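Q: Given only this backbone (276 positions), what sequence would you predict?
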């Protein structure tokens, strides 16, 4: 498990437009040339944190139509991305799925998963490595771009900040990441969990993030004070709204669904199980 904190200083509108264009149906965001987006990102490396800027759009309001229904995977995690020409494969743009957004004690929190498709060759792998660096991300490899060929990378990220915070006040933390030729594929009632502080860098693990089989309809999250929170499977194509527990599919991650549970009080995480 890896953790890195950061705050957003650059809204990187070109990259956000490119991401929005993948799934926006009613909203015209414009087409951003991928190469131009990557070049623009490199020029701003000293002040990049585009991943936080995207989170800021989401955290700005959980009932907004653009912020929550147009991000890739935010409203339609099961929908395929628009096909790209063979010479313009988007291995250097991630698919982002918002798993959960909520409020607790005047603090905003959110969880999303980024999935980067497997490059076909070293040239694509080099571009993808550079694009990940533009996002402030490092794949879980030896550092040689060739390690990415034929392997999918994913990053689990949580966000937090005061309710009503500006973009610059949002903080993100990398919870987990992997680069693999075989995505996790839980079976039966298997549950894999990543307990985390709900907000802040440290503190009691009042947030649990994890994976369950795609057949799971409900997850029960148990807390150390004896209480239980039920996370129900959200139907595909439904908007992300304020919640304290949910199970969702993630674009580019067909082998498992992801869930997030937030403790309703101060109690820390104890266990989780698939109940349906």
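A: Predicted residues:
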């Amino acid at each position: 498990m890896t953790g890195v904190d950061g705050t957003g200083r650059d809204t990187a509108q070109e990259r956000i437009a490119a991401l929005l264009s993948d799934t926006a149906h009613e909203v015209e965001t414009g087409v951003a040339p991928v190469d131009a987006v990557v070049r623009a990102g490199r020029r701003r490396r000293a002040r990049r944190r585009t991943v936080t800027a995207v989170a800021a759009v989401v955290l700005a309001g959980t009932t907004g139509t653009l912020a929550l229904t147009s991000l890739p995977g935010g409203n339609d995690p099961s929908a395929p991305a628009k096909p790209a020409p063979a010479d313009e494969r988007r291995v250097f743009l991630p698919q982002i799925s918002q798993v959960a957004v909520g409020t607790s004690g005047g603090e905003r929190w959110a969880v999303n998963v980024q999935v980067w498709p497997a490059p076909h060759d070293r040239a694509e792998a080099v571009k993808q490595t550079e694009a990940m660096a533009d996002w402030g991300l490092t794949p879980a490899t030896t550092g040689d771009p060739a390690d990415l060929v034929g392997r999918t990378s994913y990053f689990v990220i949580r966000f937090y900040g005061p309710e009503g915070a500006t973009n610059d006040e949002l903080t993100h933390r990398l919870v987990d990441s992997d680069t693999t030729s075989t995505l996790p594929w839980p079976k039966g009632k298997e549950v894999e969990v990543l307990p985390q502080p709900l907000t802040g860098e440290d503190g009691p693990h009042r947030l649990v993030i994890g994976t369950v089989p795609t057949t799971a309809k409900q997850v029960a999250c148990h807390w150390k004070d004896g209480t239980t929170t039920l996370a129900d499977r959200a139907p595909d194509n439904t908007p992300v709204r304020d919640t304290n527990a949910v199970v969702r599919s993630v674009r580019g991650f067909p082998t498992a669904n992801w869930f997030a549970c937030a403790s309703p009080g101060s109690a820390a995480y104890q266990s989780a199980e698939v109940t349906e």
